[in-house]
């Protein structure tokens, strides 16, 4: 488990990219500025949430393409892209293109399942096949095979004078398949991810097994251990199975009194949902961690889920202002990260 003699290896952050619908360009530019700041502060990765028909990033691939041209080192990921909204072949083309533009820095995080509020969008999303679409693991398996360079068809070669055709997704980006992540909240999905060669994104939401006590940290710990066991027994056992944890942390070291008050109100409003399982599946939310960096570090070292990982992507709160994110990221990089043993990465360096 991480402790002062085993430092945190990789530090990232996750943002929803909130924007004002009356001025969406400003919100998107703010997100790009935050990613640029993250690189200057030495963060290892920046992750984008994926939101459809909301006031957050609906096209993280476009945002990663833009960010790739403003940065040179920081890894860029999605956490997560719901594949129910995507055509796996087209998504594979887009991600490979952006990965090449980013020089191999893209980390696609994925999930499967029926799109949220599917009945309200299915006639626009899949007007001719809404009842036939397969939202199972098979959808992400197909995507992964295409990213890896698996055949799309038998036909390839020259046709006519200048037309040249391939039988795989083009462009092909070597190494992208090893950087695919799966966002798992249950033991079943964690085991599936490990057995099928995906890295694991473990966030602030878990779904307990029927016989498990509603203890978020212990459930997350058991899911990560189940993932690693499955990964060690998989056909891809020789590759390093990465696990990243994503909790909401709000360090207040350099926050103004007004910011501290706003942050505390935000946490207080969200805390009641963490006290009991939610919904028919008994979903559990992790409490947001707020306080000085030393206080948060102490809570993390006592957290059974955190004890299983050596990389994190701390989630930024949904509804704060640009200057709040600057303060939070600056404190995470300058105070919380070092308290966890992390060392900032500088331009030109690569983290092993």
How is the topology of this model organized?
Elements: E1 10-15, H1 24-41, E2 45-48, H2 60-70, E3 75-78, E4 81-82, H3 88-101, E5 106-107, E6 109-111, H4 118-125, H5 137-147, E7 157-159, E8 163-165, E9 181-183, H6 187-195, E10 199-202, E11 205-206, H7 216-232, E12 243-245, E13 249-251, H8 257-270, E14 284-285, E15 289-291, H9 293-301, E16 311-315, H10 322-339
Parallel strand pairs: 1-2, 1-16, 2-3, 3-5, 4-6, 6-9, 9-10, 10-12, 13-15
Antiparallel strand pairs: 7-8, 11-14
Helix pairs in contact: 1-2, 1-10, 2-3, 3-5, 6-7, 9-10
Task: Considering the chains and any ligands shown, give keywords for the structure.
352 residues; alpha/beta; TIM Barrel; 5-stranded parallel beta sheet; 10 helices; 37% helix
Please provide a written account of the structure.
- By secondary structure, the protein is of the alpha/beta class.
- The chain has one domain: TIM Barrel (Alpha-Beta Barrel), CATH 3.20.20.
- Helices cover 37% and strands 15% of the residues.
- It has helices at 24-41, 60-70, 88-101, 118-125, 137-147, 187-195, 216-232, 257-270, 293-301, 322-339; strands at residues 10-15, 45-48, 75-78, 81-82, 106-107, 109-111, 157-159, 163-165, 181-183, 199-202, 205-206, 243-245, 249-251, 284-285, 289-291, 311-315.
- A five-stranded parallel β-sheet has the order 5-3-2-1-16. It has a five-stranded parallel β-sheet with strand order 4-6-9-10-12, with helices on one face. A two-stranded antiparallel sheet has the order 7-8.
- Strand 7 (157-159) and strand 8 (163-165) form a beta hairpin.
- The two termini are 19 Å apart.
């Amino acid at each position: 488990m991480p402790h002062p003699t085993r430092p945190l290896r990789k530090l990232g952050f996750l943002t929803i990219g909130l924007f004002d619908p009356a001025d969406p360009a400003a919100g998107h530019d703010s997100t790009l500025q935050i990613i640029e700041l993250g690189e200057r502060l030495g963060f290892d990765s920046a992750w984008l949430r994926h939101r459809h028909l909301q006031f957050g990033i609906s096209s993280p691939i476009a945002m990663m393409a833009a960010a790739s041209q403003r940065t040179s080192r920081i890894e860029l990921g999605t956490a997560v892209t719901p594949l129910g909204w995507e055509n796996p072949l087209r998504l594979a083309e887009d991600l490979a293109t952006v990965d090449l533009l980013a020089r191999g820095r893209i980390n696609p995080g994925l999930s499967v399942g029926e799109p949220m509020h599917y009945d309200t969008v299915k006639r626009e999303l899949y007007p001719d096949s809404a009842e036939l679409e397969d939202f199972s693991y098979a959808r992400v398996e197909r995507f992964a095979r295409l990213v890896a360079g698996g055949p799309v068809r038998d036909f390839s070669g020259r046709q006519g004078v200048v037309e040249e055709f391939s039988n795989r997704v083009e462009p092909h980006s070597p190494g992208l398949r090893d950087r695919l992540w799966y966002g798992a909240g249950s033991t079943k999905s964690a085991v599936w991810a490990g057995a099928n060669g995906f890295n694991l994104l473990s966030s602030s939401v878990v779904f307990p097994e029927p016989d498990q006590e509603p203890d978020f940290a212990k459930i997350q710990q058991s899911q990560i251990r189940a993932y690693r066991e499955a990964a060690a027994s998989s056909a891809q056992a020789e590759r390093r199975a990465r696990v990243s944890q994503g909790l909401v942390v709000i360090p207040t070291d350099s926050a103004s009194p007004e910011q501290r008050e706003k942050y505390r109100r935000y946490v207080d409003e969200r805390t009641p949902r963490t006290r009991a399982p939610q919904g028919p599946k008994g979903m559990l939310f992790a409490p947001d961690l707020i306080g000085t960096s030393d206080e948060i570090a102490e809570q993390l070292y006592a957290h059974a889920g955190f004890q299983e990982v050596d990389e994190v992507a701390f989630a930024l709160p949904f509804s704060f202002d640009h200057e709040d994110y600057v303060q939070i990221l600056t404190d995470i990089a300058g105070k919380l990260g070092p308290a966890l043993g992390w060392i900032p990465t500088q331009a030109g360096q690569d983290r092993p």
